[in-house]
Design brief:
This protein is of the alpha+beta class. The chain has two domains: about 110 residues, SCP2 sterol-binding domain (Nonspecific Lipid-transfer Protein, Chain A); about 80 residues, no CATH class. The protein has eight helices and five strands; from the N terminus they run ααββββααβαααα. The protein has a five-stranded mixed sheet, with helices on one face. Strand 2 and strand 3 form a beta hairpin. Helix 2 packs antiparallel against helix 5. The chain is extended.
Length: about 190
Amino acid sequence: MLATTIENALNRGLPLSPRAQALCRELAGRKLAIEIPEVSRVVVESTGDMLRIARGEGPADAEVSGGPLGLLAMSADTPAAALQGRGVEIRGDATVAERFRELGRLLRPDLEELLARAIGDVPGHQIGHFTRLALAWSQSAARTTLTNIAEYLAHERRDLVPRNEGEQFLRGVDALREDVDRLEARLDVLMRA
């Protein structure tokens, strides 16, 4: 049921984007498997005119596997190399995976609008607003936690080098490298004379 709902939402946006239509035609007959290990696996297929989404196993031209948050990050403007650092693994034809990713970004449905159609405008908007606030708060809390852990490890435990000390050290290394290069150039001039 959920696969059908997502399929309908994606296909509803297809006529609205010429680029999405072109990508759908380009990907005709190609399949992308999206897997959250030990949870679910879906296969997205382009017929050339529309997308089909089915649950389960089956061959695919490309496979994308990772946790829910890593897969959600794929909808952002994140390079593929950065996604692999977030626990997202891409197997098979990476070009097909990238084309499906672009197509998905173009067809990304407005979840608040879909929710408003299901339960009404006001409750849908309120849930969407609450979700955005919760997401912003969780991102802020994650950044603060990461900063606090880094400061604790750098200043209290001294397991990490504090940022300003590391930057100062790197500037010193760069200055020393430049001084050595100048000295080497002077020695070359003196040796030739």
